[in-house]
Amino acid sequence: MQLQQFFDDNPRIAAAFSGGVDSSYLLYAAKTAGCDVRAYFVKSQFQPGFELDDAVGIAARLGVTLTVEEFSVLNDPAVAANPPDRCYHCKTLMLRRLRELARADGYDVLCDGTNADDDETDRPGMRALREQNVISPLRDCGLDKATIRLLSRQVGLPTHDKPSYSCLATRIPTGTAITTDVLGKIERAEGALSKMGFSDYRVRYQPTGGARIELPDDQIENAASRRAEILTALQPEFQTVTLNLVGR
Question: What pTM, to 2 d.p., does this model score?
Fold first, then answer.
């Protein structure tokens, strides 16, 4: 199936929107196809502030109405306890809320930006998508991440080279309880790295109170040379700060 055919068959859709590469292209494609599309962004404790800023900017650029819903996923013990299937519980909560919002606005078809590279056997969140009857047009049409980046660049979307960014909860080891305090420390640490010019980073929380920085290979030497600067930024909130010499 081609995307245009999907939108011809579904001329009115709600889109779960993150402001990332895939969901941004989904909004662009829907809008270009003449689809009546409305975007929904769930702002939980797991999304850093810049993700919301990016989503607001892209939606405005595309002329798509965006609904932002503040939602506390940590109210659910199954999420806060951080079990192996945390993503399933979290995504189920958010998709149910998105479905409620979309239906209240008159949208019965809920879509997301899952692409053809996303392995259904390796993502607990995929189970939630199936159970909540969320459609993934990019995946169904065979569009993988590389193709979506290429198409996004061709049409001038600023997200075409945006690094993939998983939620803040993925920085905390499975089985370690998630708290707003720890999430805040991680977000501030990654924000500090961004201001220093680093990209595609991860700050992994250690249960002992430490932080482990992960960077692409070509940024590790720069980080090592700026040891004092990084420690000044991160050490007030973390007992230890280490740099993983194995690049992302």
Answer: 0.90
